[in-house]
Specification:
The protein is rod-shaped. With 120 residues, the protein is an all-alpha fold. The protein contains five helices and no strands. The protein has one domain.
């Protein structure tokens, strides 16, 4: 009887402590930090794929002007943008004012090789 009473008191104290504003703030901060960290870990393969795409067209991109480089970095900054680029300019054959010719062909082939990793 005495043990169960002590356990009930401990549970009540633990409940009151966990319901306090400070502990809620601390747990919320820890949750936010862990969620951000897990999101970054989940995005690592996609970022590696985008880096592979950038590396594969780097020799051709040396001759780009500032606007073309900005556009290239913008397209390869996010997997959704890269997939959209691939769909518009590689699959559907739309005209791209910034990247064209051999550079577009190399970028399309690099995006095609990495497409499955970018979509997952």
């Amino acid at each position: 009887m005495k043990k169960s009473f002590i356990i009930m008191v401990e549970v009540a104290i633990l409940y009151m402590v966990l319901r306090s504003a400070f502990v809620s703030y601390m747990l919320e901060d820890i949750h936010s930090t862990l969620a951000d960290w897990m999101l970054e870990v989940a995005e690592m393969p996609k970022q590696e794929s985008l880096a592979d795409v950038r590396r594969s067209i780097e020799p051709d991109a040396m001759q780009f002007n500032e606007n073309q480089m900005r556009y290239l970095n913008d397209v390869t900054s996010d997997s959704h943008r890269a997939i959209r680029f691939h769909q518009l300019y590689c699959v559907e054959g739309d005209k791209n004012p910034y990247i064209y010719g051999q550079t577009l062909y190399k970028m399309c082939s690099a995006l095609g090789r990495n497409k499955t990793r970018l979509q997952s």
